[in-house]
Amino acid sequence: MAKDTPSMAKNKIKRSLSAIIDPHPSEREITALWNYFDSSCVYCGLKMERKSRTAHLDHVVACSEGGNNSIYNHVLSCGKCNGDEKRDMNWLIFLKQKSLSPDFFESQKLKVENWIKQNNAVKIETVVMKEAEKIIKNALSQFDESVKDMRNLRKINTKKG
Ligand SMILES: [Zn+2]
């Protein structure tokens, strides 16, 4: 069995606490997203197969900018568009850049807008997110303290012999 180092455990604590208030999409929601985007990259139109694992669920608003993990804050993207080209670029600017025709741009823009507006129903208020961050920070610093206490205890225990 793999060892859980304190830093790995910290990441798990963080992920598990944050998923309580901001859960990641379920398999069923991911299926709905694949259907809505017709198994195609929203930016370049590439058809993808779900089982090929080449597709990315691209955050529309990045978590670092206050975006949540709801399915309605994600679009379907190919790995090349999301991973290599778009990175942290705004989705609309990137879509404009990638679109080979104005028609493609307009229809994709509308498609994304209709999808992400459903996010309003599940959006987490900023004040709630701030509180969640505080709770997580507290849990992690308590854990840090416990790690320190445990290491001190080990020191005492090894000196004894
Ligand atoms: Zn693409």
H/E element string? HHEEHHHH
- For the record, the CATH class of the largest domain is Mainly Alpha
The parts where pLDDT drops under 50 for at least 5 residues are none
The N- and C-terminal alpha carbons lie at a distance of 29 Å
State Rg.
21 Å
Report the CATH architecture of the largest domain: Orthogonal Bundle
Main sheet, how many strands, which sense, barrel?
2 strands, antiparallel
Ligand identities: zinc ion
Oligomer state equals single chain
Helix % is 55-70%
Structural class: mainly alpha
State mean pLDDT (0 to 100 scale).
Answer: 92
Estimate the global geometry from the Cα principal axes.
elongated
| Number of individual domains | 2
CATH topology of the largest domain: DNA Binding (I), subunit A
Outline of the structure:
The protein is built from 6 helices and 2 strands; from the N terminus they run ααββαααα. It is mostly helical. It has a two-stranded antiparallel ribbon with strand order 1-2.
Describe the protein's architecture and organization.
This protein folds into two domains: 23-123, DNA Binding (I), subunit A, CATH 1.10.30; 125-161. Helix 1 (6-21) runs antiparallel to helix 6 (126-160) and helix 4 packs antiparallel against helix 5 (102-116). The chain is 57% helix and 6% strand. The two termini are 29 Å apart. It has a two-stranded antiparallel sheet with strand order 1-2. The longest helix has 35 residues, at 126-160. It has 161 residues and is mainly alpha-helical. The protein is elongated, with a radius of gyration of 21 Å. Zinc ion (ZN) is lined by residues 41, 43-44, 46, 77-78, 80-81.
